[in-house]
Known about the structure:
This protein is of the alpha+beta class.
Amino acid sequence: MIRPILKMGEPSLLLASASVEHFDTPELHALLIDLEETMQAANGAGIAAPQIGVNLQVVIFGSDRTNPRYPDAPVVPKTVLINPVITPLDDKAEEAWEGCLSVPGMRGSVVRSLRIHYAGFDQFGTPIEREAEGFHARVVQHECDHLWGILYPMRIRDMSKFGFTSVLFPELDDNADD
């Protein structure tokens, strides 16, 4: 079911999320279906459970198709990531533009680790461990920030690099929710 996406200003988006205690439950599978359908309907690169009002450490991300909101981005493997831990692999960072389904119509330039290791679990409780770089690493960091009550505008260092997508990138024409 496509769920409403909470917008910046909603106090619950600033809360740290609870760890998932039980895997492979009907409730968890239903949450993942809702997250997937909501993300697809909004052309998201990822979505976190807090964005639909569920205060649990659950994110999904990735696509096997070109995303109209990120037309030049490489494909990111579809992933369910629960109770994640992210570790930068070195001190290299990259500044790039981000948008967010909870901050519709806006983009900002954010510095993120270029290469990361992430670990967690899938919906069945199977451990996941991967290394990622570039856009893949950025998406993981962005989505996991939601689990710790952080929205990307909180990470912007230079507010002159934050604004409406229609002004900054008129060619994207993403008047729909980011």
